Amino acid sequence: MNSSTKTKKTYNFIEEAQDIFKEMKKEMESKLNIFVIGKTGVGKSTLVNAVFGRQVVETGSGSPVTQGIEKIDINKNFSIYDTKGLEIKDYQKTQEKIEDFFENDKTKTANEQIKLVWLCIAETSRRVEDAEIEMFKRVKENYSYPAMIVITKATQDKDENGKKFSDFVKEKFKVKDSEIQRVIAIEVEDDDGNIKKKKGIEELIEKSFNILPDADKMAFVKEQKYNKKIKNDAAKKIIHKYSAFAGTVALTPIPFSDIYLLLPTQLGMLTHISSIYGLNFSTEKMKELALAFAGTTATGVAVRSLLKFIPGVGSAINATAAVGATELIGKQYASYLDKNFEKIRQGEFELDIKKVTKEM
Ligand SMILES: Nc1nc2c(ncn2[C@@H]2O[C@H](COP(=O)(O)OP(=O)(O)OP(=O)(O)O)[C@@H](O)[C@H]2O)c(=O)[nH]1
Ligand SMILES: [Mg+2]
Question: If you compute the radius of gyration of the chain from its CA atoms, what whole number of angstroms results?
């Protein structure tokens, strides 16, 4: 950035604030629609529950869209399309219905369109249908949906001749390692009493995240409830963005520029971070949190000392300090949410503002 654009930026901070908040709103409202294809019993519902939280599919109210396709609205930002009947018998009919659905999808608003396709194949069957290969090809080539092959019930890759089922699938579907993942979506005990633990879920989330266009990444990060790292990475990016903006605010030549001028930015940041963790608090609650950070709590004191803020004097704040203070608040909040990730995942989390702001 050269110095003239920097000056211009400084003076246009209200417009920039509007841009940031508009972007935030768009991101927070963006919808995730996942289309899950696979034969009956391959483990589609189990997989979706593993990735998006317990009993997502069972609790979601399913309604048949058309033959073989059921739409399940999980929440206002997230729907799943569950397909059945890609069996040998009658598969052509189902295939046609799916194609019609994809054609119709093009006419929908961006938010309603399919964002990701998972095609599930059970490792236990060790079979791949021509209909599945054809369907996957069309999903990718004709409709350009980001798509992944999920090998479910993955406990035995090699067959009796040492040949891997995953290699066979890769070859048949012409996919790279980045587009395929073996998973065990539920912990089970075999006949010998051996526990087969869940596996491949984090990897599936990461690979799916990577193939999504940027505009859809955040919706996916928000809804998935398994991979803490991609939530944390997204939070870091957001903290960075808001902190940089706080620096711009501090540079603004307004005489009463003080810590409270940073509050709207920090409020936006805290709301945004919450949404990444799938949390949706009232503006009042977020205001309370932002104020707590600016207040007399330990964090507040640290923030104030960073800003060299003298109550009552209303000293102009230093840009570097504004960046640092905003970063501190963001990191503190994100790390608190990280620590409580298990509770968030179980839907049992409650925000305790005193605890968030207690220790730096
Ligand atoms: N061992 C094992 N069993 C699994 C796994 N995933 C799913 N199952 C079991 O497979 C059965 C079918 O799973 P579902 O998730 O209902 O399969 P589905 O594809 O949704 O089936 P439909 O809704 O009928 O199309 C259930 O008993 C699951 O517990 C897995 O990774 N390992
Ligand atoms: Mg199902």
Answer: 24
State in Å: Cα 41 to ligand 1 middle.
5
Q: How confident is the model at residue 59 (pLDDT cuts 50, 70, 90)?
A: low
SS3 label, residue 90? coil
| Strand, coil or helix: 164 | strand
Residue nearest to atom 30 of ligand 1 (CA): 153
Q: Is 47 helix (H, G, I), strand (E, B) or coil?
A: helix
**Residue 320 region, left (φ>0) first, then alpha (ψ -120 to 50), else beta?**
alpha
Q: Which residues on neighbouring strands pair with residue 158, listed in sequence order? A: 164
Determine whether the shortest distance from the Cβ of 184 to ligand 1 is under 6 A: yes
pTM: 0.83
Answer with the residue of higher pLDDT: 181 or 223.
Answer: 181
Nearest alpha-carbon partner for 303 in 268, 341, 333, 340: 333
Spatial CA neighbour of 167 closest among 197, 128, 201, 118? 128
Six token digits for residue 121:
């194949």
Q: Is the CB of 38 under 6 A from ligand 1?
A: yes
Q: Is 186 near ligand 1, meaning CB less than 6 Å away?
A: yes
Mean pLDDT of 223-231: 91
DSSP strand E in 174-260: where? 180-182, 188-189, 195-196
Joined together, the tokens standing for residue 44 give 């589609």
Note every long-range contact of 166-171, with CB atoms under 8 Å and residues 24 or more positions apart, other chains counting: 168/128, 169/121, 169/128
Ligand nearest to C-alpha 94: 1
Which residue segments constitute the domains of the chain, with CATH numbers given? 31-223 (3.40.50.300), 227-358 (no CATH)
Which ligand gives the minimal distance to the CA of 50? Answer: 1
